[in-house]
Amino acid sequence: MLDNLNILNLASAMARHAAARHQVISENIANADTSNYRAKDLEPFSEAYSRMAKQFNQTGDRSPFSGSEPPWRVNLIDTPGMESPNGNNVSLEDQMMRSIETQGDHETATLIYKKSIDILRLAVRGRA
Fold it and tell me: What pTM value is reported for the model?
């Protein structure tokens, strides 16, 4: 019963997605002055989830969010932006907003994980 808790797998996948997105955003910020650098982002978690859920329903071979590797294979996407004279389109303001959004996504994932564990503890103690 407790070996397949999809809510915990989903929360973990959400947190891993947020961490991967933070990495992409930090690369964008680090290359803000690099000539011809194009800002990137990850596809939203909801889109990756939908795609993987459809794939899982077709194959049925394993849970789409189990395991340590990100099974959703998030796609990198180009972000639109105003191009500077050196061909770079990184906007630090936009990247900071994306970073704040990603921090909120990570906090949501950890809150879901924590509340799920709290519910399990209550159930094990017989108070649910």
Answer: 0.81
